[in-house]
Amino acid sequence: MLLPLTDADGIVRDLRYATADNLLGRPIYTQAVALLRPAAHAALLAAARRAAVLGLRLKIFDAFRPLEAQWAFWEAAEDKSFVADPRTGGTHPRGIAVDLTLLDAATGAELAMGTGFDAFTPLSDHGRLDGLEPEAIRNRTLLLGLMTACGFECYPPEWWHYHLPGREAYPALSAADVPGGPM
């Protein structure tokens, strides 16, 4: 079962793979819907509440990704270290992963993170210190703290990617498994 993120959740949705503004340059999803397993949904809402206390909001770029979409990314990626092999399922097709950033709640502006979302470069690494402004390092650390405090783990090469641990407990799903899903 997957639950949708809605306006009532207070999380901004900018689902890039439902638009041409993504690494493939074309829409991958036919619907702009963000779905998560109940445990991931609850953890994300907890992170959103923590962010709100700090005057911040979460902005989601991607959540559940059907295996068909995972295959499209796998086949297009030159550097496979930034895309999970669909044969092993990854975490997005399991409904336990989100790609996100932080916004200033008062202005709606994205906080500086040093690179854009889906920037497949060494500068996107969570541990990167050189080549980044101190503000970007601070903001990445803030996002890391919010997400890990609520049960998520990071994917070290991508500052924007978080997932729940224990992926084996959640089977990977195809588009046919999720009526009303993004594809």
Automatic annotation (TrEMBL):
It is an enzyme of class 3 (hydrolase). Its cofactor is Zn(2+). Zn(2+) binds at H92, D99, H161. Keywords: Cell wall biogenesis/degradation, Dipeptidase, Hydrolase, Metal-binding, Metalloprotease, Protease, Zinc. Binds 1 zinc ion per subunit. GO terms for molecular function: D-Ala-D-Ala dipeptidase activity; metallopeptidase activity; zinc ion binding. The record marks R65 as: Transition state stabilizer. This is D-alanyl-D-alanine dipeptidase. It comes from Lichenibacterium ramalinae.
